[in-house]
């Protein structure tokens, strides 16, 4: 599907350089084309599932996250406690459901902050020239070079009991630089393309050039950096919680693992306590990398077509890497790409 | 491709004459001959820009480093006094002066003092390590981190890049399954992977020791007992780092290979009847590896700072664990020192990446200069 999209775009450009009069719905459709492949959809479904769990946590969780039950300590999974209990008799299943909130809130908020900064800095520094461009680029590079995790650990320890939004802000402020750098490079290459020059010659105002002419061409890269930033934010949050930099009052999957590790669950094989939270983090990671694969294949169709072409040749009993069959394969089918 | 690099003379910006023998246009395009074109000019503008950038970044990082402890709540001396009860008020004041924490100086004066000390190579003294100089404390931990993580990074890079090149070559085959598998391993949080590894291999199977860099009762000597103990203790942390970072290298190389294999010169090479092995390693992989080498140089910088979690999980006596302990003990001098070392190593790695790229890819030099 994405190759179809690319061919459409390439044939459309020479015929009508100004934005073609298309309906809003079809334009929205093309903006979401990168999500219309199996990998992206699978990733979105998993993310949507966790988002729903986070929203409906009060109805889904059978117990409050920190309800202590002295009679049921360190119980393995049962019908009462689906994923067993902790050293205080807290229900692990409920803790995971409640913990989803912290992960989703911080993940989304940090990503929004980071991507906003990345898009503004990247596009402005890519579009402008001279000292403005250079200084913004230098700023991004400084943030890229300064080691993130040590800085976050030090900054987070400034607060006695940091609320979720502070953690999200710190993660966002330290995580925007890579996106800005990638977007800057792409904006710089777009700046001198014909359609942007034509828009400039038509006297379109700057905000319109950036919003209407450039942003649609940057969507793929922005989506890819959203995915990358969110992965980093989720891993960052759970890692910080696990280390103990974020206090235990903010319940998330990392906190559960912190308790499990501190109480020796790993040494005593209380798997119901430490395996599920880790698997949940891994599931979010898998969802985000599926999305990333999907977007990658949309941006760079070779990644997908290379494998498909090779498999198609193999079905006909040929090998891509064999020069002789390659020459032969083009003539009978008449297919050349 | 980079024939003019190795022997690049360092003459100052001379536009040398075109090589004496008129090169045959037929020979120019083939890989069989070396093109003797103009002597490589030194891209002063490019070098100047980079130098400016690194100076600026260094200044920014060191200034952040200056402000960090001053933003933190709690005073290092109070934390120290809480642990050592029998210290008089005068001694505490003397300690404050020694640590540069006396409050009767203006912030600007403190900043100047900080730079003066830094330029003399004096990072202060660490109160959580018996008032020993910070440099001494850090240099005790640095070899452990660099040794273990360095080896793991090199292994992951080599295996990942070679594997990625091969998987990209055999595109569409079952080998493609390696990509989602290794990516999965790199998306699960590292500390969880490490803890699981300890549970399985140390607690249940009792194959490998739990944590620490060497066995109890051994002292660092060049004896076989000690070295084998270090290796035994390093297997688990190193292999988990390799597992966790393999995916990135493999995916990056494979994606570059797929892009490069589509280029015309690959088709030409195959049409010429060149053996596949030569096309794969000398033509495709050689070009696809360029971004990998740059990321490798960058990742060398994160060796020092990027493994805080590993060192915590395995109680490995490296720099990352030292930073965590220093933060918890409010040992600001040590914290600053570790942060400084981490930042410096990242900067040096960035310079190395720049140099490597300019050396390997002539296009960067031409466009930037």
From TrEMBL, chain A:
Q: Region entry Disordered: which residue ranges?
A: 1-22
- For this UniProt entry, what is the primary localization, expressed as one broad class? membrane
The UniProt transmembrane annotation reads 41-61, 103-124, 136-158, 164-183, 218-251, 271-295
Kindly state one GO CC term assigned in the UniProt record.
plasma membrane
| GO BP, sorted A to Z | transmembrane transport
Q: Matching Pfam families, A to Z?
A: BPD_transp_1, OppC_N
Domain named ABC transmembrane type-1 is located at: 100-292
Question: Which PROSITE patterns does the entry link to?
Answer: ABC_TM1 (PS50928)
**What compartments host this protein?**
Cell membrane
Gene3D superfamilies per the record? MetI-like (1.10.3720.10)
**InterPro entries xref list:** BP-dependent_transpt_permease, MetI-like, MetI-like_sf, OppC_N
- Identify the domain of life: Bacteria
> What keywords appear on the UniProt entry?
Cell membrane, Membrane, Transmembrane, Transmembrane helix, Transport
Q: How does it sit in the membrane?
A: Multi-pass membrane protein
Question: Family, per the entry?
Answer: Belongs to the binding-protein-dependent transport system permease family.
Question: What is the protein name given in its UniProt record?
Answer: ABC transporter permease
Species whose genome carries this gene: Tessaracoccus antarcticus
For this protein's source organism, the top of the classification is: Bacteria, Bacillati, Actinomycetota, Actinomycetes, Propionibacteriales
